[in-house]
């Protein structure tokens, strides 16, 4: 203060409103002699504020540890706070994120509340270190800084994913149980829990009975007997789960490859016994057998052969469509020589080594009327009969045979010549010649020449046999038949 003028001015020490906002001065006025006559006055000096302070945060670093990665947009993270001792706009603070937020966070410029503005992902980034500024609102705009450290909490929010969308496997049937089929593998970016594997409940019961999966390793092994003929393919749906909501599945397609483990099987429709006429033409089909093999490919192709019973190659067999065995006549038949053939038919597949099955085929040869009757004694007969014998006296029995059978061998006997006076008659069934009630009379006729015809009952073939005998002399002591000539006539009618 100037002692003469009373002017108060600032001293050498700088003013600081934030330290002391006012000063109270006691001022005295007195005479120059500094006598007892004095007067005083109180002077209060108020220090006006200027923006000379910077905002200061309450903490140099704010931490939010374990923020859930599934936190939604707008989730509160932390509140930062800064103060500025200045007044007015100089003490008003505005907050801003300077760096490190990766556009995942924002700070309210007025309140300092840090919130999320985008979805977080632990698997992408596990932590954030952000710089936050606080700026006062008057020139020269002082600024203060702090850091915000946020760590994320890993959660089961990531989808489990198989390394392959599908697996295609081929296995041979009859493979040993316990054989590993394939190992499926899935991953989860969360990597929090142990992945477990299992078959989908909708997997077919047939597949579940043949395969199992290790819940930890994902190895699929065979547990049952694989039989391609029971099932040639299986589809396994495998589910991988880490306990979270986003599990995954994959498909394992298994194809069963064939092995030659089945022999051909003859069908019940196969001919096992047939009957054919002995005049069947060569080249005609006489029987068909049917055999199938459950195996696939070459293992299921069947060929047919005749292995026994085919005497003199009377028959041959051709394979049709690797399924049918067609038996054809290969030579002429003669029932009178062989009336039955017991053939063994073999069905063989094309596997390696081949498998086969045999079946018996009986071919019965039916008779046709192809043989005429034959006289049993073609050299003749000698018979003597008294002249006056009674009627019905046996003179001779003509005997003939026929190699055919059945009606074709049933013979009938007739006197067809030399018996104009009906002295004799013949039994149609037995061939016995007897005298009629009127005996032969030497004085009327001394010699008879009789013609006997023998016929069988074959249809449509008719066979006839004519035997001619001469009666050279009739004596009172008897009749002599001298059968000296036997002529055979054979007539064959064609069948329709």
Explain what you see:
By secondary structure, the protein is mostly beta strands. The protein has five domains: 48 residues, no CATH class; 98 residues, Immunoglobulin-like (Sandwich), CATH 2.60.40.60; 98 residues, Immunoglobulin-like; 102 residues, Sandwich (Immunoglobulin-like); 117 residues, Cadherins (Immunoglobulin-like, Sandwich). The chain has one helix and 37 strands. The protein has a four-stranded mixed sheet with strand order 4-11-10-7, with no helix packed on it. The protein is rod-shaped.
Please give the structural blueprint.
Elements: E1 22-30, E2 38-46, E3 56-57, E4 61-68, E5 76-79, E6 82-83, E7 93-99, E8 105-107, E9 113-116, E10 127-136, E11 143-153, E12 160-162, E13 166-172, E14 180-183, E15 186-188, E16 196-199, H1 205-208, E17 211-213, E18 219-222, E19 233-241, E20 248-257, E21 265-266, E22 273-277, E23 285-292, E24 302-308, E25 315-320, E26 324-329, E27 340-349, E28 356-366, E29 374-375, E30 394-397, E31 400-401, E32 411-417, E33 424-426, E34 432-435, E35 449-456, E36 463-475, E37 478-490
Parallel strand pairs: 4-11, 13-20, 22-28
Antiparallel strand pairs: 1-2, 3-6, 5-9, 7-10, 8-9, 10-11, 12-15, 14-18, 16-19, 17-18, 19-20, 21-23, 23-26, 24-27, 25-26, 27-28, 29-31, 30-34, 32-35, 33-34, 35-36, 36-37
């Amino acid at each position: 203060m100037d002692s003469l003028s009373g002017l108060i001015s600032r001293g050498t020490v700088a003013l600081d409103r934030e330290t002391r906002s006012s000063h109270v001065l006691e001022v005295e006025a007195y005479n120059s002699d500094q006598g007892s006559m004095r007067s005083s006055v109180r002077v209060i000096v108020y220090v006006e504020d200027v923006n000379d302070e910077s905002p200061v945060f309450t903490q140099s670093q704010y931490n939010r540890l374990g923020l859930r990665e599934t936190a939604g947009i707008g989730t509160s993270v932390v509140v930062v706070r800064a103060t500025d001792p200045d007044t007015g706009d100089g003490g008003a603070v505005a907050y801003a994120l300077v760096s490190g937020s990766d556009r995942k966070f924002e700070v309210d410029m007025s309140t300092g509340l840090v919130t999320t503005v985008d979805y977080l992902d632990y698997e992408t980034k596990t932590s954030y270190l952000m710089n936050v500024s606080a700026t006062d609102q008057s020139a020269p705009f002082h600024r203060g800084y702090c850091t915000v450290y946020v760590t994320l909490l890993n959660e089961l929010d990531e989808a489990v994913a198989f390394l392959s969308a599908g697996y295609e496997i081929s296995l041979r049937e009859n493979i040993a149980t316990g054989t590993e089929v394939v190992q499926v593998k899935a991953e989860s970016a969360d990597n929090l829990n142990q992945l477990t594997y299992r078959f989908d409940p909708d997997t077919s019961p047939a597949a579940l009975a043949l395969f199992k999966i290790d819940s930890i390793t994902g190895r699929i092994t065979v547990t049952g007997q694989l039989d391609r003929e029971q099932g040639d393919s299986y589809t396994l749906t495998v589910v991988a789960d880490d306990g979270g909501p986003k599990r995954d599945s994959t498909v394992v397609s298994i194809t069963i490859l064939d092995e030659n483990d089945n022999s051909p099987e003859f069908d019940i429709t196969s001919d096992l016994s047939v009957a054919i006429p002995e005049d069947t033409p060569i080249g005609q089909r006489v029987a068909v057998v049917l055999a199938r093999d459950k195996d696939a490919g070459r293992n299921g192709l069947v060929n047919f052969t005749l292995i026994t019973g085919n005497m003199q190659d009377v028959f041959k067999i051709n394979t049709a469509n690797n399924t049918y065995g067609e038996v054809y006549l290969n030579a002429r038949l003669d029932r009178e020589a062989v009336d039955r053939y017991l053939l063994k038919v073999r069905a063989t597949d094309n596997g390696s080594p081949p498998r086969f099955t045999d079946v018996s085929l009986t071919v019965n040869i039916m008779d046709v009327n192809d043989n005429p009757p034959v006289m049993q004694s073609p050299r003749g007969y000698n018979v003597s009969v008294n002249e006056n014998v009674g009627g019905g006296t046996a003179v001779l029995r003509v005997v003939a045979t026929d190699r055919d059978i059945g009606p074709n061998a049933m013979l009938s006997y007739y006197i067809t010549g030399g018996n104009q006076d009906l002295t004799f008659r013949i039994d149609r069934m037995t061939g016995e010649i007897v005298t009629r009630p009127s005996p032969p009379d030497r004085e009327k006729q001394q010699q008879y020449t009789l013609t006997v015809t023998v016929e069988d009952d074959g249809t449509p073939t008719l066979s006839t046999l004519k035997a001619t005998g001469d009666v050279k002399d009739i004596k009172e002591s008897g009749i002599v038949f001298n059968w000296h000539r036997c002529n055979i006539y054979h007539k064959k009618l064609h069948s329709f």
